[in-house]
Amino acid sequence: MGSKPSTVQEQQRSASVPNVTKSHQNGVSGTDTPSSTRNPPKSAAPTGRKPPSYHSRQIPPPKPPKTKKDDIFSLEKYQYVDDYVLNAPPKLLMGSFKELIRYLTAEEDWDDVAKARAIFRWVTAIDVYSLKVDSDPPTHSPLEYFTKIQKNQGNHAHLVSGLCQMAGLPCVIISGMNKSAAYEIGSKCERKQMGAQWNAVYIQDDWRFVDAFWASACVVGKKSSEWTLVDSDGNVTQEDEEESEGETQHRVNEFYFLPDPDQLIWTHFPDEQDWQLLAKPITVKDYETHVYVRERFYYLGINFTPQSEMKCILNTKDGEISLPFSLPPDRSEFFRFKYMLYKNRSADGDQSGADVNLDRFVLFEHTADSLRFALRFPLSGKFKMDIFGLDTRQSDIFDLTCTYLIHCPNAQKNCLPLPDCPPIGWGFGGEAKNAGLEAKSHDGAIIITKDGKVEIKLGAHKDIRLHQLLKNTIVDEATLSKYAVIREENGEFIVDLRLPQGGEYALKLYANEDGEDGEAGNVLNYLIKCNEKNLSNKPFPNITDGFLGKKSIADALGVKALSHKDGKIHSKDGRTRLEFQAKNNMELVCELHSNDPNATKHMKVYPKEVNGKWIFDVDMPIEGEYSVNIFAKKKGDENKRIYNVYSYMIESDGHELENGEENESKDDEDTKEEIKVVTETVQTSEKEILIPVPKGFDNVVACLHRRHADDPPNAQDLEFMEQDGMKLFKATFDEYGEYIMDLYQKDENGQLKNLARYQVNRKPASELYQDDARLLMEQLQSDMKQNREDEERKQDESDKELGALKRDIQRAMDLKDPEMLERSIAAFEATNPPENDKLLQKAKRLLELLRAKEELNTASHSRSLQDLDKAIARAKAANYDSLLDLQIVMAGRLRDQLHRIEKLRHSVLNMDNRTISEIRTYGNPPDGVHQSLQAAFLLLGNSKKDVKVWKTCQSILGKTGRDSVMRKISGFDPKDCYLDVALSAKAVIEPYSLEQIRDVSAGAATFFVWAKGMIEEVEATGGAQRPDDKMKDTSTSKKGGAGQGAKKKRK
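^ Kyphoscoliosis peptidase, sequence as received from the core. Prediction below:
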């Protein structure tokens, strides 16, 4: 879309682009074209050609064409015409129209399509609004006419008409109205304001449209101040648009050469009905109310379905609406789509909820033959939905396909956000197909389950590694990692899910080619829905990374399974022998796990090693489900890191217990407390994180891996250390991503017991709290509370029985959901239970811990030292069984970091005026002084070019009020600073030491210390994410800011 025609215009125009008025944008001519082009005489025909065989009054009558554009024209077939025209001599601009048409039609064997193409391509190659003419152009020359177009004294339609007539092609000028950049989508169509002209040319016995103006100019960056961008493809944003007329840019748009009438009609409405060239003409009302569609819609072969919304302005029903389309299944795998949702700033609506983030309320479904956007609104109001698309084979720029205006009079009740908003959308689409997957059991985007149990089967036509990630708005990811497993069996991948409670879940699948290291790409997403409120599904036994069978790292460590290749085993006698071959320098250890406390008490593993052959005899006398995880580490290595090389799920039929052993009840409440595994998800921007070892355990080892990735050994550094009386693992994450760390107690026989599972999500500091679902949901709690109470009053009395209430409490405790737990405790207390009820005491203790954890998160979000001190104290008081150790350590580090930032800030703010004046008096500052201020000013947002000049630094230092250095330092936060800026500042002061600077200037030394400290903080957190360059290049629009790689084009 952004390619530039080469020869003619580039040699004739200036690079500057003048402002363009709306009349230019509409393409309305102020005067007629020159007579030589309006109605050329016979003598104007090219030499050697016969004059036209028709008279202007005898042109064929308008009627619908018998064929489509694709039947008579393709770029490939007529490429020779473009090549010829784009090499036209620049002097043609200065010559006569006769000379121009002689050149454009010199090839006698060209058909009418080729002639029309030559005229179209030459006219559109000229960047009219950037032409700069230093002197008066020759009279009646093409250049003179282009300057008249610049002055609104001519237009493209008259020029094309004259040239076609000179070439012997019947051509008419069509007057009407079009939906240009000046048109406000959804508004009434006014002929006076929307007037425009375009052409119809008679080719191969049919009339065909041509709009050279829309094909060569588009308005980029036009914005209306009435809209706020609230959701950009699932990314949180609250960007108010500033009013902007945008600028006209030159781009050649092939759509407007011979477009089909049924596609052009929705932007170009002729005054005369016959010139619609439609078998069934439309009315002005149809034109006005039809959904706003653009050429990318047709390029991608998108079609409306019987269920599609054809009107531009829509109304929601119960706070939701669906926008379905059909896609061509033979090529939709190459399509990509994005959306942008705006909220009207002035329309009536729910302004009280203006602070509610509106990300993750749009479900985007993309399958082989369909595209659908399902919107739900937690707020009432007026919204605008822009949908963008691209074909990856032709472009990397998203262009507008269509726009809807959506009125939501009433918000959806209890409207929760989706668990995720994946950029590739939901359902089996192109990414899954390209990965070699085939939908065996589910090809739609949404899976409904009554009991929360789902089995998904996928065929595999390539050697790939498949990874899964289960997400929910309420339940944290570390907990959910135990409710999903994946295995490969008989050439198929099978994903098993057990949902812990009702609601919506996102199952995200990622794929790497076998043997390919690094992060896997997201290829397929399902939205799982379960409306059952009283689920009692238990998690799977522990599988380290959720994948059964051989892990990608096994080959790198030299470990091979000898006995069982598949990850699922059925043991009829309750016993299984697992055999492996390993390098002589490798040690294998094993974790045997069950969620049944009774089974845990009786299960055993007997390991032994003979000449590199490892045997694990597994005894599982209690019937049920078990898991075995095999880990490898180097013998004699003091490093406490282990690597998961194989995982198995074993269904045991059990066997009789040995004499003296007692089979206890599975439902014994006291035995349930025996299994205590800390499970937490934490968010951080720091490269390094300290993971505390639960108290009371000595020989602890750790397994660390990046989720949905196949990393080689030591991809992330892991170091065991002791600090302030605590045992810690220090993990270093060079890349952003999601990581899982499991801590195990290792006994003398090499058997492991899981102590803790932490999911660490490292994100850029600027994104750290953007998708905090808990914070978002808290904003909706007040609206939902009354509805919950109404539902509870309607419950059957049977649900109020003591046993049911206890189950509710236990389920809330298992999920660590404070809202559910608080409601369950209140309902249970209403039955007047004994004060010393053990379950009630445990529930209250956990609730206080969860509330303390929430307060820690909120204080960390606000970055308030006072709030952090208070939250840390509460967390320490509420902590038990080491459940909050990690959060307390992280909050303590943040507090220390903020203390340090505050100290550095005050060191600058406390400088007296005399010290600052001393620095400003330097005419030629000592070495290091300029550099210290240069680094500080770079961090504060000044440009490299400016701060390289000492006089500019002096000027910056002397500013007062809101622009003063002190004011900017007072408000500086390292998390908002770009990493590349910090690195530039670092390079400036790196050659110097504090002592060097202090020896020549105490004031400069203060700036040096502040800059150095801030740089270290930015480096530690990764700083703010600068928008991707491609995204910035493509974020302009014709109507509303189309960021995130989208472009809008309006003529």
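Residues 637 and 942 are 50 Å apart (CA to CA).
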